[in-house]
Amino acid sequence: MAVTLEFIGPLGVALVGSRSRLDVLWAVLAAAGVVLLGGFGGANAAGVVLALAAGGCWAAYILLNARVGRAFAGGDGLAIAMAIAVLPLIPFGIADGGSNLLHPSLLAVGLGVALLSSVIPYSLELEALRRMRPQPFGVLMSLEPAMAALAGLVVIGQGLGALELLGIALVVTASAGATLGTRGPAPVDA
User: Is 164 in contact with 149 (CB distance < 8 Å)?
Assistant: First the structure.
């Protein structure tokens, strides 16, 4: 449910920045699918607030990353942003891990996690945002709840009901429609 609620942010980007009725249609279709995937019964209020806050941060990330992608060549902007973002975390890591942080196997695992969870995905997203408007990108990000539902099925055997399958179908349809409707490069900021 948390992944589903987080995607209200990218959907908001798609709706607020819409330039056509077709963009709105794809965003509304994806939103309907996200709601069906959510299964909002028995939600924890604090969890809902935190997931919605994460969605707001994700919306800001989409808009800021699009601008960074246009302002910096290659991965320079991403590298600068990641270096700045890690600075506040260093004291907590040192306090918790101490000298264990210098153990070669831990460093290797940390490098692998950094590459697979941040460097590669963010680099691909940055390149995508250089080539398309943030609004369709926000709709495409709505595939995440469908992938989370699929991972739940494969990894932990969490079954999918008819409403969840319908939700996945709506999200995939909206994402495909947004992709097909995107033409040309992202507009350049003045």
Answer: yes
pLDDT along the chain (190 residues), means of 10: 75 74 82 74 75 88 81 80 84 86 86 84 80 73 75 83 82 74 51
Whole-prediction pTM value?
A: 0.63
Run of H or E including 156: helix 143-156
Helices marked H in 7-119 — which ranges? 8-16, 21-38, 45-71, 76-86, 90-97, 104-114
The answer to whether 81 and 126 have CB atoms below 8 angstroms apart is no
Tokens (6 digits) for 140: 């495409």
Residue 166 to residue 36: CA distance in whole angstroms:
7
Q: Which residue has the tokens 């924890």?
A: 44
Range list of β-strands (E), the chain: none
Residue 32's nearest CA partner among 150, 159, 167, 190 is: 167
